[in-house]
């Protein structure tokens, strides 16, 4: 479902001079590869700065690749047009980032239902699904009609997770999905991940929570192998 081959990436820092007087060029990835089958969860590991987040952002199409291909379903994200990436994110590839970014004043239940509404799901059905996820993630009902902007860190993370699991995406990227959660909610999130795997989602995640990683991930991929200057 997700197949990355020969991936290369460098950043050019335009405000910091390099050797040739142009921007400094920082190579961060060479020969990156990854294969994730439907129903499989793969954890990205490696030292801080090795490139885990960079690889996730490249798969999501936020960072442009300089070399290689990133197949998600039948789309090569490395060569796709913006409109194809937007369609991919709507239908195929979900992303639960560490932090919730929302338009102010939109009620929580609408934030969670939005990915379904965008797909054309009936409003009542989308709302019911959103409410079910919020309840499962222990967000008190009195908060559903409020914007999540004033919620606690853990509440915002759970709203983010509810939104990320609202649609049954065939592929999912998870960035530290259990980071600021208590034991009860951590368990709920692990259950959601297991459920997504059981219905055939291909998942790539960054988990600093090793017990969570061991429980839900089938394999780990050490991105240090793709880090220029660090690879063995
Ligand atoms: N937008 C950017 N511009 C320049 N350099 C960047 C940018 N994003 C990441 N980098 C560099 O790429 C390298 C990999 O960073 P990345 O955030 O992917 O590491 P990571 O493995 O996710 O680290 P951590 O575990 O600390 O989050 C780092 O050296 C970082 O400085």
UniProtKB/TrEMBL annotation:
UniProt keyword list: ATP-binding, Lyase, Nucleotide-binding
**What Pfam families does UniProt report for this protein, alphabetically?**
ABC_tran
Q: Which residues form the ABC transporter domain?
A: 2-231
Q: Which Gene3D superfamilies does the record match to this protein?
A: P-loop containing nucleotide triphosphate hydrolases (3.40.50.300)
Would I find Lyase among this entry's keywords? yes
Instruction: State the InterPro entries in the record.
Output: AAA+_ATPase, ABC_transporter-like_ATP-bd, ABC_transporter-like_CS, CP_lyase_PhnL, P-loop_NTPase
The question of whether Nucleotide-binding is a record keyword is answered with yes
PROSITE patterns annotated for this entry? ABC_TRANSPORTER_1, ABC_TRANSPORTER_2
Q: Provide the GO MF annotations for this entry.
A: ATP binding; ATP hydrolysis activity; lyase activity
Q: Which family does it belong to?
A: Belongs to the ABC transporter superfamily.
Write the protein's name.
Phosphonate C-P lyase system protein PhnL
The gene for this chain is: phnL
